Model the fold of this input.
Amino acid sequence: MPAVLCTTLLAGSMGGCASGGQTAQQSSETGAAEAYGTDTLDTSADNGDVKIKIRAEANNFDVLAKMGESFQQQYAGQANFEFEFIEQSDANTKNDVLTNVHDTADIFFLADDQLSALVAGGAVSAIPNQEEVKKANLEGAVAAASINDTLYAYPMSADNGYFLYYNKAYFTEEDVQTLDRILDVAAANGKKFSMEWDSGWYLYSFFGNTGLEFGINDDGVTNHCNWNTTEGDITGVDVVNAMTAIAQHPGFLNETDAEFPSKAKDGTVIAAVSGVWNAVEIQETWGDDYAAVKLPTFTCGGQQIQMASFVGYKMVGVNSYSEHLGWAYKFADWITNEQNQNLRFEERGQGPSNINAAASEAVAENPAIQAVLAQSEFGVLQRVGNNYWTPCMNFGLEIADGNPSNATPQELVDTLVEGITASTVN
Done:
């Protein structure tokens, strides 16, 4: 069960007379189909006790509480607000929400690749203030939050990718150009380079720029993949051999993204692949030695191959069946506006999707934001079918653990591709 923190941020007075507009509280029968329209933002008939449940990662609770406080000030006297924060990984939003769309949070955070499933499942509907939000945000972020040019979520950040963090006390700028050198420096100092290998998100780094092909099929559910090919300049076996050499290097550590900050703090890890969500904590740990750049190259098939990445955007969805739908839309709009995207950048280091916020001098000078932008040249939008994740997790762990099954490299990559391309139709 997810952890739940409940805090009443406002116990304001009851609002005045309703203006006779449409109530924000829609029935479940009309919520999914009719949420689109500016009338949905009319909350005049919903001026009593308003409880808004928010699914988010725990490290965002503090900044969300501040946003809730400013929201209460903005709408003081219009309702009695209470905010409940439910801990949930953004990566699990789709599954958690669709398990019971009628009994989940009012607001949730998601990556762009989950949007289509949430729309198809009736969990989110077109947002009311389409043009206003489109004009305020970067074109790529708007496109990622849209289906057929219609916005279904509020753009929040334009930095959902990964790159290399490193400690300048150990590495030069030249050192971090290649993974070979990073591993050697780490081992020579009794330290580690860390990366999460039981995640298809990070695993893509080793296949993406090799000339091997992968993508989602037109059905939007299944995948095509030739990562096990035996032809071409780089083959699937070449990638397996490259990863095996990395896994066996004394400077390598396979660990989850969530463990990286603590390992950096205790001195174990001096370089790692991660994203902007760890920027504030890593900068606090390494101080003046903190640095971030694009991913390095790695040795594969006798060549230096630039590591690839998935890139994307994060956004805020509103449950179509929220009991207080109008207020839920208003709060989602509030926590993604220019003011609060600036606040999120200042406190969490997350790159804004808001045009004005993204153009600030502070963003331009932020190493993590600039690193993810530099890496985006070598990345692709994450568009994958359902069967991608588990085979990648098993494949990455098998190699990281030293191939306990004793499978040949070709057998390992054949099993990976068989799982990725499996049909989901019974």
DSSP finds 18 helices and 19 strands in the chain.
